[in-house]
Amino acid sequence: MNILYQCNNKYAPYCGVSITSLFENNKNSDRISVYILSDNIEQDNLDKFQLLASKYNREIFIIETEQIVQKMIELGMPAYRGSYSANLKMFVSEFGLDTLDRLLYIDSDTVVTGDLSEVFELDIKNSPVAMSQDSLVINHKIDIGFNIEEKYYNSGVILFNIEEWKKQHCTERIVEHVINVRAHYPAPDQDLINVVIKDDIYELPPEYNMEPAYYMFSAKNYYRVFRNPSFYKKEVLEKAKGNEKIIHFFRVMGEFPWHKDNMHPFNDLFDKYLSISPWADYEKESSRIAWVFNAEKLLYKYLPESLFIRLFHLSHIYFMKKSNKLSLKNESNKYM
User: What domains appear along the chain, each with residue ranges and CATH number?
Assistant: First the structure.
């Protein structure tokens, strides 16, 4: 089982929590090799990664990325939240991993809750990647050139078919798009992969990338408000709940589970694996979120779900549209 992560020093503890959950819930796997694309991870965190590997008798390999980061800078690819880490995986064939057959990329803001062996056995045909659909994007995909019937995928979990990725020149196609079409997008790596490779993506079932919206809202309210005609059928999503393989806890109301006093639906799950990781002494800090997110937290706490989900949906549309307009001017939305 070959697993890929990418992170900078700030995200190293969260990456460590995810790897802890991976090892905990895949103890029956004969071999797990984890590769971390390092964007200046400091020695203290590097030592903790090796401590984690030793505890579970697994392998963690650190891959330095300075040359690829410099290449991205020269290409004019933007940093995201001050780091180039998000885009590293799109150069997956340039890190000496091209001898691997399948490689499962997992975001650092995740917890692995199930056996991942089956995903490596999927027949994804000639697709270079397999991904689960995104839970929130509907209007945004239209803004970046999709039609409403086309699927849009979340890049938090990607099964790479390395041979096909190279054969279909995916990295080169992405670089060409960045140079000749557009470099800046609101969701940098995710938008690029969707735009450039959209016809070649194999759809993973939702259990490999279960997102916060599925737990914040009832299925009835979610499907009534997020009317995405190309999305998973309601019964498929409901079946995935209770059979989760990977939980993806991206921002909810501006915060992650590692923030102090957050209202994230996966806070307790994050804390569970944090407590048994080498980062157990991690102290949560306030997120210093903007007033709009504090207001959203209050509304989430006191409004009926059926009303709040509509406001949540409108807010997401607004911020994505604003982010898209800013990205067209090579600017970033500070709230994203």
Answer: 2-328 (3.90.550.10)
